[in-house]
Please model this.
Amino acid sequence: MKFQPDRSEAQTIRGYGPGWIAIEQEKYTHSLIISSQGLLQDWNCQRFEDLTPAHFAALAEIPAELVLFGSGARNRFVSPAWLRPLMEKGIGLETMDTQAACRTYNILAGEGRNVVAALLLE
Model:
């Protein structure tokens, strides 16, 4: 009996390193948002210190069950008040370093989950 598909239809993060992420065949060197539903867009922030509540309010507008926040080279947390728009819509948020967020995104997207990753590349 087979429980998982051989290949997910979701976008896949193929690799990452300091200052870059590869999605499918394309390499990116700036912060971005990716979703298992096909969204791929720039995320207008280059440093953790550039983040504002508006960045998380915009994430709440993307239909998802879970947002993975990749906070850069190390795990850092934003103010809990910034997460209110996500909580009000019942969207979960997990914070981890960007490389861990890439790995977690691939696992959840491969399971068919409706997941978004907001990945900070500094």
The first helix runs from residue 53 to 59. Helices lie at 53-59, 84-88, 98-110.
